[in-house]
Write a structure and sequence with these properties.
Elements: E1 6-14, H1 18-28, E2 32-39, E3 50-54, H2 59-75
Parallel strand pairs: 1-2, 2-3
């Protein structure tokens, strides 16, 4: 059996356009989707393969969070 891929998607706004939402759902059927973006309204996905990572709207907070996440990625 093939292993699941982890696919990161930065959509900008969560939820995004219908096309992007359908794309995320389709990918999540066989792979794990890491969804990054600013949450414009509360949303949840039925598929457990979708993980939402909130991105701050403020540029300064976003920069700090990006540096932190890059550091974690470098370590792992």
């Amino acid at each position: 059996m093939k292993s699941k891929l982890k696919i990161a998607v930065f959509s900008g706004a969560i939820p995004s356009t219908t096309f992007i939402e359908d794309l995320i759902e389709g990918i999540a059927e066989k792979h794990h989707v890491l969804l990054f973006g600013v949450i414009s309204r509360p949303t949840s996905y039925k598929n457990k393969n979708i993980s939402i990572y909130k991105t701050p709207y403020s540029h300064l907070h976003n920069l700090i969070l990006t540096i932190y996440r890059a550091g974690l990625l470098f370590v792992t």
